[in-house]
Fold this protein.
Amino acid sequence: MLKAFLVCMCLGLTILYSYLVLDIFGPDMAQISKKLEKELSDLDEISLSPMEKTEEQIRAIRELCGELCDTTKPIVPGEFMGTVTSKVDCHTLFSSPVFHQPALLPPQAWPQLSKKIQDQYTYQGRVEVREWFFNDAAAGGGMDSPYTFTEDMVQHYIDRWLAGDPDDWYHIYNSSGMIGAAADYQNVAGKTLLVIGSQTPWLEAVLLSKKAKKVVTLEYGYFISEYPGHTFMRPDEFRERFLNGTLDTFDGIYSYSSLEHSGIGRYGDTMNPWGDIMAVAEAWCVSTKDAHLVIGVPAMVNWGNGTGKDIHEWNAHTVYGPVKYPFLVTNWKFVYPTRESERNNPDGQGQYDQPLVHAGEYGNRLGVEWQPVFVFVKNNVGLWG
């Protein structure tokens, strides 16, 4: 009798587990991926324009991405920033060719995009669009030979940071100081860290100076570091190592002035309205359960009056406000800084309502654009991929 009871109980648990898995992950994602891959491959036999084929690429990405790329999900209000949660199939995110299609269009100005594509980027009309166009396709990931940072070169960045004169491109924002404060908040000593998008190791220098055990920089460009404990990795190798189980699991993810360019085509990359969300989701997949996410992007979450604004300054970058920032950091929860003066936009709303004033190649953004560093912890609710 007892044996029969145990067998029945085990069978019941197995069936329950199967229903839970189906409820969480839905149908076989590998089959869906193969179906979409074939549909995209068949486009070569159809007389469509590059814009129409790009629309089909985006449709396939949205279908396979599922809940993660559903920007109609509710944003749960928070004390400073709301939160968004989603199921994530990490294996599909890293392995499916649907997410890694070649670009079919050169960088596009906003009026050149079809309305179908524009609608995906505006989050149901909640994201404002201002035109500020760049064609930086030549500066993308097409480096054939590596640029090597010698040990002495990286040490230079460390020494400058320690001397109070950091050698970084973003000193007008006190970027090194904010990264240093975030690293202290996490206490990075002895930790393994991932840096997303960095072509000069100023950020890595801050982390290495604070005795991080290992720093890996994920970067499209072809770079080599000879500094002990620091290495560069390109996206193809990063995905391959995740899939074969040889990639590190990271205690912290750091990124400054990189994610705001994801998926908008400025650098010749494939158009993907959810490219930034998916990049952060990949970081979620490769991090420990107690990991910290540290991000610096142009932000307008709160002007100090409880309101902010989301803007695509197309195709220069994205400015993240009360809608796009929570979606960017899906499955992460804001924890730092706690002082309003360090997280609310310092110039209030007024300057953001002024027309964009250009001054030279990169435009005059001083006093208007703000790139604060925010820290998040993992939101480990439910079962994830």
User: Anything to note?
Assistant: Confidence is low (pLDDT under 50) at residues 1-26, 355-368. The chain is about 35% helix and 15% strand.
